Amino acid sequence: MATRKTGEKSESAGKGGSEGAATGKKVAPPAKGATPNALQKQLNPSPELAPIVGSHPIARGEAVSKMWEYIKAHNLQNPEDKREIVADEALKKVFGKDKVSMFEMNKHLARHLT
Q: What is the reported pTM?
């Protein structure tokens, strides 16, 4: 592994498997015979979540990305505090309440992916 000087990234820095969710790029499926990690495992969305992310099996990381696409497309972030998501009717079915913080969103999302 390459050593780093202060302020420089090594070649391998930032090339983790979870990078796809943050950049919006599709995460590559695991190699044949390999066990998928938590972000790559295909999960089935609940009937409440399906209108937002689709009804087909989806990886957790991709579901989070689709949630953010939906939130931004419908302007559901509180303009005074962007960390807060104001739920519309579809998201109320997923969250179970009117508002959640962006940090709570994954907890609610996990309940709807099996």
A: 0.67
